[in-house]
Amino acid sequence: MEVWGRVGAQVCEVATALHDKSKRALIGDGTYHGFVTAALKEVPNAASISPESYGYLIYQQSGGAVQKRASDILPGDVLWMQDAKLKGHKGIHSYQQSVGVGDPLVGIVNEFEAKKFKVRIFQANQHVGQQTVESVSYRLEDLKSGLVKVSSCHNFSFFPYSSFLEGVPYIGSLKEWLMQI
Q1: What is the 3-state secondary structure (H, E, C) of the chain?
Q2: pLDDT digits (tens, 9 = 90+) for 46-55
Q3: How far is CA 40 from CA 54, 114, 123, 137, in A?
Q4: Cβ–Cβ < 8 Å for 151, 40
Q5: Which of 137, 109, 114 shows the shortest CA–CA distance to 66?
Q6: Which residues are CB-contacts of 171 (< 8 A; sequence separation ≥ 6)?
Q7: Which residues form the BBC1/AIM3 cysteine proteinase-fold domain (predicted)?
Q8: Alpha-carbon distance 61 to 59, whole Å?
Q9: What is the pLDDT of residue 160?
Q10: I need a surface site. Which of 38, 112, 119, 170 has the fewest CB within 10 A?
Q11: Does the pLDDT value for residue 61 go beyond 90?
Q12: CA quadruple 112, 56, 106, 144: dihedral positive or negative?
């Protein structure tokens, strides 16, 4: 967890710096994937990514049903949304929002409020003429349809498995999972 926290914190710091820099220059190629790629290549221990995989899947939700929750959502994780329709309330007003229609939305988690189940991410701004990075929040409990995935971009391949896993209590399933990587 200690090394994972450092990598996640580094990814979040790089994303914050790119958010500030985006007001003056284009980040990556201006796409969601381009921004995430630009942020992760600045962090030495981050896992290599592709448009199909942004690391190790730690959370998956389809519609209103959570299908997988292997870990808490932390800053520096990568959020991916496809054909997501959100409907809920912000204050006294109701809202409806569709994201990731056509191309999936991809961003880097900046903050997660577990009590409200709200995630704040940095994502590329896809509005015409405004290719910057923006900070946007989504309430995952407001998801009515579509798919949300959160992946950890931590690269486990540099751990010396035997020394990392020895002496850790109740590690059976985690040890098996790490050996499959």
Answers
A1: CHHHHHHHHHHHHHHHHHHHHCCCCCCCCCCHHHHHHHHHCCCCCECCCECCECCEEEEEEECCEEEEECCCCCCCCEEEEEEEEEEEEECCEEEEEEECCCCCEEEEEEEEECCCCEEEEEEECCCCCCCCEEEEEEEHHHEEEEEEEEEECECHHHCCHHHHHCCCCCCHHHHHHHHHC
A2: 777 776 778 8
A3: 10, 25, 13, 21
A4: no
A5: 114
A6: 165
A7: 2-150
A8: 7
A9: 44
A10: 170
A11: yes
A12: negative
- Averaged pLDDT score across all residues of the chain: 82
Sequence spans of domains, the chain: 2-180
Buried b (16+ CB within 10 A) or exposed e, 3-21: ebeebbebbbebbbebbee
Given the DSSP bridges, would you call strands 143-152 and 133-139 parallel, antiparallel or unpaired? unpaired
pLDDT single digits (tens) 149-162? 999 876 555 444 44
Amino acid at 172: G
**Across the strands, what pairs with 99?**
84
More confident: 92 or 172: 92
In single-letter form, the type of residue at position 147 comes to L
pLDDT band at residue 1 under the 50/70/90 scheme: very low
**Residue corresponding to tokens 């498995």:** 161
The encoded tokens of residue 52 equal 């199909």
